[in-house]
Amino acid sequence: MSSLVLVLGFVALLILQRVLVARFAFRGFHYERSFSQKTATAGDTITFTEVIRNRKPLFLPWLRIESNISPYLQFKSEEELDIRFDRFHKSVFTLPAFSQVTRRHPVKLRHRGHFVLGDVTVTCGDLLGVASSEATWRAPAELHVYPKLLPEDPFFTSQRYQGDESVKRFIIDDPFLVNGIRSYRAGDPVRDIHWAATARMNELQVKTHDFTADPKLMVILNCQNREDQWGELMDYEQEQIEHGISILATICIKALKMGTQAGFAANMPMEGSTDCAYVSPVGGAGAEDMLLSAMSLLQVKRARRFPLFLESLSQLTGMDIIILSCYESAEIHEHMELLRRRGNHVQLMLLKGGEKA
Known about the structure:
By secondary structure, this protein is α+β, with helices and mostly antiparallel strands.
């Protein structure tokens, strides 16, 4: 008789805990997750933290937290964290009454980008795993991963430049600071012709300018890996463009440290847009983070043919312009010459493995 009472009592407790878990599992429940920092650089290892709280006098036998996370966030596998197909992440917890569990996972950042984590699926079950309750929980976390900066010496000695200007100059002549005249040369802008001196000398003369104390740099990146590339780039083709983004970042940050305003443009969109990326030259406090954050949003897909994109930038004037491209072509050089006629200093840098015309 006593054995029967014990069995019935045990069954009653199982039924009771099953009912309680089903009805009250998510009351007093709290889950949050975060990265140890809001910005980082590709290749860094940071910490991903999960915090789960049970603020009620009810024991939760097991909880499962499931979510999709980018495969570019490489978790070091642990017993508590199940990772499937590099995308599906699952954490399992057991929570006593009025308790909190904190787990910290090392994460290696494999790729530049903007990573936003949203909802998770939370499943709570009873002791026997027969019954469970499921809910969607909002658990936001955000991370900007900046492009990796290249070592300065190998970077500047290994690249090929097309043009006469030194990339280390980052200074332009000021059209308002005239310091003399000289004979006209092919490519000189018409606005620099000194008509009075031309009449006196009976030969075309142009003004020469002093250098400005407020130089501006614009770096333009071509995301096409070849002239006839029309469709989307395959994953393996994007590596060369990602390297170009690292060069873009390296040049801009070097310019800022030299006191030069820097900006960039690319015939690819930024996250949330379908138009080509364009960031005007900026300088001063916060400029470095602003530019790198914008670069983390770049999407490697062509928004416009590169020659047409260069044509849309024909309003640029009085800047140092560096063009990063996997190839060169007659069309590109034609638009470079148009930019020079607007008073810009323009040069082309072929990315590693790029093709000369």
